[in-house]
Amino acid sequence: MKIGIACYPTYGGSGALATELGIELAARGHEIHFITYAQPFRLTSFHEGLFFHEVEVPHYPLFEYPPYSLALTVRMHEVARQHDLDIMHAHYAIPHAEAAWVAKQMLLREDRDLRVVTTLHGTDITLVGQDPSFWSITRFSVEQSDGVTAVSEYLRDETHRAFECDKLDIRVVPNFVDPEIYKPGRDDCHLRALAPGGEKIVMHISNFRKVKRVDDVVRTFAGIRREVASRLVFIGDGPERAAATELAGNLGVLEDIVFLGKLESVAELLSCADLFLLPSEQESFGLVALEALASGVPVVGTGGSGLAEVVDHGVTGFLHPVGAVDEMADSGVRLLTDPDRWASFGRAARSAAVERYSAELIVPMYESLYEEILDGPAR
Fold first, then answer.
1. In sequence order, which ranges of the chain are alpha helices (DSSP H)?
2. Cα 272 from Cα 173, distance rounded (Å)
3. What is the DSSP string of 56-97?
4. d(CA 348, CA 90)
5. Which sign, positive or negative, has the C-alpha torsion 236, 66, 7, 169?
6. Residue from 355, 341, 243 nearest 300 by CA
7. Helices then strands, each counted (H, E), the chain
């Protein structure tokens, strides 16, 4: 199959999943065309059968806000025509699903049929899509797609509720992980640099948006640090970093925190971690938590959303209510001070990731969906 993939190329779960999916599909013999405004951050080397098409946005004085969605639509149309694409896979509803639908209509005028698959990832539904400015176009774009997937049951149900579309068929296809890349082992994880005194390593990876509650990461770590010699490793960057730094200073743990910024590859660092913290307001899935589990690292985070489908409470990690930093710190201490329990959780985490979420299990689900849509009637 010839498949276009439209996604955000920046640091975040939707872009990471879209890129990894494209790489896996190309390895399976499909022709993959990424269409976005910059090279996806996880697309770092050449892959046979995989191509990147940059969306260039004109900056005319007339436009106070450059019309990216229109430029994206035109680029989708061009690539679909030039390479005779079968499927356009839009990751994140806005603007990718909307742009794909318009490109499809343009191609229909030329007697070409492009099928559109939309994958919902999280804040495109739970935050952006529910803004009154985008609600109707988000609902329309999702409903007009030839196929729709969501990365968790939580997100599927939230989409049905928020957009009043209970009859819309949304297939749950969870995120996946390559267990050959994300795996336990500390041979080359820079352990001496991160914990020169042999401290336990607590880790958090995100885009530092408010929904990630980075302040709770710092507060939870401060509670752990009072009981266990440990260091907090932050990977990523974003609007909440400055506030997190200030809070760490006020709590007296700033010297025990390492800020590594945005990194293209985190697998070798995750294999260093003893504990992963993800105390988000909500997670539609929690791809980075899955990568931690595959690395044999227990996760402490918040329940009540998609993360509860990934982390088995009391088996591969602990889940607590949003904002319950004392409870999360206590869970972290319990794991870090009990080697047998920590080892048991780590083994269970690795097993769950491999047995439920490995790429070889999940990617064929997308291939089956593509084939089903191509064999079905046009919408």
1. 13-27, 68-83, 98-108, 123-126, 135-143, 153-162, 191-194, 214-227, 241-251, 267-270, 287-294, 325-336, 339-357, 359-375
2. 29
3. PPP--TT-SS--HHHHHHHHHHHHHHHHT-SEEEEESIIIII
4. 34
5. positive
6. 341
7. 14, 13
- Separation of alpha carbons 43 and 24, rounded Å: 12
Beta carbons of 36 and 57 less than 8 angstroms apart: no
Give the closest residue to 306 by CA, choosing from 275, 267, 280, 277: 280
Percent of the chain at pLDDT above 70? 96
Give all domains of the chain, ordered by start, each with its CATH number.
Answer: 2-175+359-375 (3.40.50.2000), 191-357 (3.40.50.2000)
Residues 6+ apart with CB under 8 A from 45: none
| Per-residue tokens: 267 | 């697998």
Give residue 357's identity as a one-letter amino acid code: Y
Measured distance CA(317)–CA(228) in Å, rounded: 18
303: left (phi over 0), alpha (psi -120 to 50) or beta: beta
CB-based contact 9:42 (threshold 8 Å):
no
Give the type of residue at 119.
T
Alpha carbon distance 182, 93 (integer Å): 28
What is the residue type of 211?
Answer: V
Question: CA-to-CA distance for 296 and 157, rounded, in angstroms?
Answer: 30
Amino acid at 294: A
Between helices 68-83 and 98-108, what is the axis angle to 10°? 50
pLDDT at 332: 98
Instruction: Indicate the pTM of the whole model.
Output: 0.91
SS3 263: coil
Q: Of the candidates 12, 46, 50, 52, which has an alpha carbon nearest to the alpha carbon of residue 28?
A: 50
| Residue in 236, 231, 277 with CA at minimum distance from that of residue 260 | 236
Least confident residue range of 3-17, 58-72, 164-178 = 58-72
